[in-house]
TrEMBL record:
The name this protein goes by in its record: ATP-binding protein
A GO term, aspect molecular function: protein serine/threonine kinase activity
Record Pfam families: HATPase_c (PF02518)
Acyltransferase recorded as keyword: no
Domain Histidine kinase/HSP90-like ATPase, first and last residues per copy: 50-141
Species annotation: Streptomyces lunaelactis
Gene3D superfamilies: Histidine kinase-like ATPase, C-terminal domain
Keywords in alphabetical order: ATP-binding, Kinase, Nucleotide-binding, Serine/threonine-protein kinase, Transferase
């Protein structure tokens, strides 16, 4: 991928309560910001990106809400890149690539499989204080 996250000109941040409706809110916000940034809803990366985002927000709501009352989605984009992160304040750091080789499907395995099939990357980044994390997805446009 040619763009570094720091250099992507478009940014948006959404923070919401870690409840079931957060998934719908995150997806709707994603669609809205992509249109505002000139990225067509019909672009072949958009539907898989929405599925990936939905899985990550669902995981935060299901598994982190007890320690993280809010979930935050950070969006960034440039001419050839769309990146987003789902952040919560639960300290557990999932192993993304171990989940893609484990038996079964869904959840993080789906996230990793879709991300890699699109030529993207998935990275878990711990908060500086060790009490939370962000899962960053970067996809080519």
């Amino acid at each position: 991928m040619s763009a570094r996250l720091e250099t992507l000109p478009h940014r948006h941040v959404l923070t919401m309560p870690a409840v079931g409706s957060a998934v719908r809110s995150a997806r709707e916000t994603t669609e809205q910001v992509l249109v505002e940034w000139g990225i067509s809803r019909r672009h072949p990366t958009v539907d898989p990106a929405l599925l990936i985002l939905g899985e990550l927000v669902t995981n935060s709501v299901r598994h982190a809400a007890v320690l993280s009352p809010n979930v935050t989605v950070i969006y960034a984009a440039g001419p050839d890149t769309f990146a987003f992160a789902v952040h919560d304040r639960h300290p557990y750091l999932p192993s993304l690539y171990a989940s893609s080789t484990a038996q079964g499907s869904g959840g993080l395995a789906t996230v990793v499989e879709l991300t890699l099939s699109l030529g993207g990357t998935a990275v878990v980044r711990a908060d500086a204080d060790g009490r939370g994390k962000s899962i960053w997805i970067t996809l080519p446009l």
